[in-house]
């Protein structure tokens, strides 16, 4: 089965409101890239999106391995897994 995704910049007070609209539009996946200082923390925004949607798959898309410590990333991903059921 083909899945359709979209890349979205994580934006406070916008990500959680946009995620249900993406579901309504028929998207299966949303990716929020790790951009450090260019936008909000993508893990926090993805958690908010997970709580605002029913079936949308949420992913980081790209993670920066130099500026994000591996253990901290693993903890964030674990928290996101718990939030997203």
If you had to describe this structure to a student in words, what would you say it looks like?
- The chain is α/β, with parallel strands linked by helices and 85 residues long.
- It has one domain.
- The protein is built from 3 helices and 3 strands.
- The protein has a 3-stranded parallel sheet with strand order 1-2-3, with helices on one face.
- Helix 1 (15-24) crosses helix 2 (42-52) and helix 2 (42-52) packs parallel to helix 3.
- The model has no long low-confidence stretch (mean pLDDT 89).
Task: Summarize the helices and strands and which ones pair or pack.
Elements lengths: L4 E3 L7 H10 L4 E3 L10 H11 L4 E3 L10 H14 L2
Parallel strand pairs: 1-2, 2-3
The coarse overall form would be globular
The number of helical elements comes to 3
Tell me the strand percentage band: 5-15%
Pick out the low-confidence regions. Answer: none
Helix content: 40-55%
In total, the number of domains comes to 1
What's the short version?
With 85 residues, the protein is of the alpha/beta class.
Q: Characteristics of this structure?
A:
globular; 85 residues; 3 strands; 3-stranded parallel β-sheet; alpha/beta; single chain; 3 helices
């Amino acid at each position: 089965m083909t899945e359709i995704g979209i890349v979205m910049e994580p934006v406070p007070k916008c990500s959680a409101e946009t995620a249900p609209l993406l579901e309504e539009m028929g998207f299966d996946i949303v990716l929020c890239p790790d951009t450090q200082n260019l936008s909000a923390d993508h893990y926090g925004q993805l958690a908010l999106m997970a709580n605002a949607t029913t079936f949308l798959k949420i992913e980081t898309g790209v993670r920066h391995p130099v500026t994000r410590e591996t253990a901290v990333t693993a903890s964030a991903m674990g928290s996101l897994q718990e939030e997203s059921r």
